[in-house]
Amino acid sequence: MAAALLVGLYEDEEKRNLMVERLLRPHNDMLSFPDHVLISFYRLPRHLILNLVEELRPALERPTRRHGALPVVMQVTNALRFFAKGDFQTEVASLSSVSQPCISKNLMEVTKAICSLAPNYIQFPRGEELQRIKQDFVRQSGMPGVIGLVDGSLFPIKAPSGPTEPAYVCRKGYHAINVQAIGDQNMVIRHLVAKWPGSIHDSFVFNTSGINAYLSEGRASGWLLGDSGYPLKPYLMTPVMNEQTDAERRYNAAHKRCRSRQERLYGVWKGRWRCHDMSGGYLQYSPEKVVMFVKATAVLHNICRMANLPDPEHIPAMVEDEEEGHDDGAQTGRTARNNLIARYFTR
């Protein structure tokens, strides 16, 4: 049986005219194209697709090809295409000559399988790795003691039905999931919270997260950096509001320089996996399914970062308005920040 594979030879789909050719290829030949073509369709080169297929094979392979069971490689590439483009399932089905119900079923199965890999790919650093991260942050931005960057980002969804619908309306007026990620100096996601409706404040997401409990127990030496929407804590440094001294201004400048990496992390994540970018349209799924897509693409984002793949050319602007914050954290937080400024930013 042959599958119709639409191959576009291009570098930037939005800025250049597409050169398109329809080819008939057997299922086991669908990865025979050059890496730049595979990346344009699936965002991964051949060797990473094959690695992912082998990791997912135990969860996806069927003992028989009866009843229309698809080869694992086709299940995985169909899902990657959906994540990469945000295509409707009917369009993915057209490209792979598979029925839409089959695409729908396989998409959720592949998504669940990728989510099961999260403990292997999304890990908060410890030990020597934590020390290396601190050193890299100092070299990059001049901010000492940083073990990660925390921020929230809104992932748009269609309006859900039912009484919880208003909770998903974010401060920008559309329906969304508020996703919190902690990134390192290489824009690898080190911790993820993806479950809260778009109206929930970043500070609430952090305060109720497992990483807050973990750090409050003193289990990691150093601090996260967050914007002014986050609570000031001994392990979470926020900017100084209404800065008064040169030392505070130098601290804020280093803080902002460091946090720009987290803004770019979200831009690279959504730019590569366009199902989450508003330019690709709102995902037409329930919030529960969108949360699964977020977790799956977070794993895929880390696979790309760990393999040092180039960032996508189109990175959506991710400078979001900071939530209304305050600078009246607990005394222990203010003391820790004052000590940091006095030790490293006072000349």
TrEMBL record:
A Gene Ontology molecular function term of the record: hydrolase activity
Cofactor (UniProt): a divalent metal cation
InterPro entries: HARBI1-like (IPR045249), HARBI1_animal (IPR026103), HARBI1_dom (IPR027806)
Keyword list, A-Z: Cytoplasm, Hydrolase, Metal-binding, Nuclease, Nucleus
Protein localization: Cytoplasm; Nucleus
DDE Tnp4 domain sequence ranges: 150-302
Domain of life according to the entry: Eukaryota
GO cellular component: cytoplasm; nucleus
Predominant subcellular localization, coarse grouping: cytoplasm
Sequence similarity: Belongs to the HARBI1 family.
Function: Transposase-derived protein that may have nuclease activity. Does not have transposase activity.
Protein name from the UniProt record: Putative nuclease HARBI1
Protein's organism: Coilia grayii (Gray's grenadier anchovy)
Phylogenetic lineage: Eukaryota, Metazoa, Chordata, Craniata, Vertebrata
